[in-house]
Amino acid sequence: MTAVMVELTRGPQIPARHDPDGVVLVDDVEALLTDALPGCGDDNPYNQNASRDCRRTAAPAPPVWRTPAMPTQRLTDLPDTVRRLIEQAAGAPVVDVGSISAGLNSAIAARVRTPERTLFVKGLPADHPRVWTQRREALISPHVQEVAPHLLWHVEDSGWSLLGFEYVEGGHADYTPTSQDLPAVMASMIRLAEIPAPALELKSMTHRFRSYVEEPADLSWFAGDSLLHTEWNPHNILIAEDQALIVDGGWASTGAAWIDPALWLVWLIAHGHTCDQAEQAAAAHPAWRHAPAEGLRALAHVQRRLWDSIADESEDDWATPMQEAARAWEKHRR
Questions:
Q1: What is the pLDDT of residue 149?
Q2: What is the C-alpha separation between 211 and 206, in angstroms, rounded?
Q3: Whole-number Å distance between alpha carbons of 110 and 77
Q4: pLDDT (tens digit per residue) in 124-181
Q5: How far apart are CA 163 and CA 151, in angstroms?
Q6: pLDDT in tens, 45-73
Q7: Is residue 9 packed enough to be buried (19+ CB in 10 Å), middle (13-18) or exposed (0-12)?
Q8: Rounded-to-integer distance, Cα 92 and Cα 41, Å
Q9: What pLDDT sits at residue 105?
Q10: At 291, is the pLDDT very low, low, confident or very high (cuts 50, 70, 90)?
Q11: 250-253: which pairs have CB atoms within 8 A and are 24 or more residues apart?
Q12: What is the DSSP code (8-state) at residue 70?
């Protein structure tokens, strides 16, 4: 789910994801290869059930690699084709368009007005390597409507994938220690955890973390069937009328329920919390009491390795606060 309508004006801006646009991670490589191999993944590059034997017989197995990449270029004007598709989906003419600059992941992110309503529209070219995230958002949207802006339509046509959401007037969450937004964020995180994982082909956290553990046995700590958002960047949280709406569901996954608050606390540390303060905030989640100490240690190690790899290969310093936060939490959990 995505509906970011207002510029971030509070707190440090960290335009990143756990799998940020600035880095091509192994999942992106697999997505590209799986999409290219007939019969591997049933036309879904994020299908964890795709056969590894199928991949090996169709092409050599790819190495686990990462390389710097540019963020998706944001278009400042709607192409005529996109405007036409929006008008067809909305059933009304577009009378005004305002570009949204926050975030790095969409070629199009705009506030679009018709005579009847205002929409938030995000989009990617149909041949973009991560266009599957648009489809994932469209699939997950009906299941998370109580904690996210409503998806009104999804269009794939004329070389574009477009999502049209209800427009929500609000600002991004403030993650600093004195923020009044944190209880609302936690309340929505808890509500999300109460939603049964839908019968969709969601990636498991054991699969997503497999490249960052040193001991394969550590992956067992992350197993579970809870629905997880996993991308707790404050850009993905809208505060509207004291409610936190969770947006950008393209990386929804399944795993142990305590993983979401554990991933969130690293962002809190990056925004000024001590490790103790961040864990105290995460402890408000009911699943936290079931988080095993060894599992938290393993996750802290995974996060440190992930953010080290991102920061080491990024030409910019946007990942540095997250790298420092992940290192601090790993040390705290030793």
A1: 96
A2: 10
A3: 9
A4: 999 999 899 999 999 999 999 999 999 999 999 999 999 999 999 999 999 999 999 9
A5: 7
A6: 223 333 333 322 222 322 222 333 334 44
A7: exposed
A8: 37
A9: 64
A10: very high
A11: 250/2, 250/130, 250/132, 250/133, 250/134, 250/136, 250/137, 251/17, 251/18, 251/19, 251/133, 251/136, 251/203, 252/136, 252/140, 252/202, 252/227, 252/228, 253/202, 253/203, 253/204, 253/205, 253/208, 253/228
A12: P
Going by their DSSP bridges, the two strands 253-255 and 203-204 should be labelled as parallel
Residues 260-272 have pLDDT tens digits of 999 999 999 999 9
Q: Which two tokens stand for residue 279?
A: 């864990």
Tell me which DSSP letter residue 165 carries.
E
Q: Which two tokens stand for residue 290?
A: 């079931």
Q: What is the pTM of this model?
A: 0.78
Q: How far apart are CA 121 and CA 108, in angstroms?
A: 7
* Residue 25 predicted with pLDDT over 60: no
Count of CA atoms in the C-beta half-sphere (13 A) of 88: 12
CA distance 46 to 202: 8
Sheet holding 171-172, edge to edge: 171-172, 237-240, 243-246
Q: Phi first, then psi: what are they for 232, rounded to 5°?
A: -95, 25
Q: What residues have CB less than 8 Å from 92, skipping those under 6 apart?
A: 114, 115, 116, 117
Q: What is the C-alpha to C-alpha distance for residues 237 and 14, in angstroms, rounded to an integer?
A: 13
pLDDT tier for residue 313 given thresholds of 50, 70 and 90: confident
Mean per-residue pLDDT, 87-116: 84
Q: Which residue, chain included where needed, has tokens 């368009």?
A: 97
Structure tokens at 99: 């570009």
Residue 133 has which token pair?
């995230």
The gap from C-alpha 16 to its chain's centroid, in whole angstroms, comes to: 9
DSSP category for residue 196: B
Q: Considering the chain, what percentage of its residues have pLDDT values greater than 90?
A: 67
**Residue length of the chain:** 334
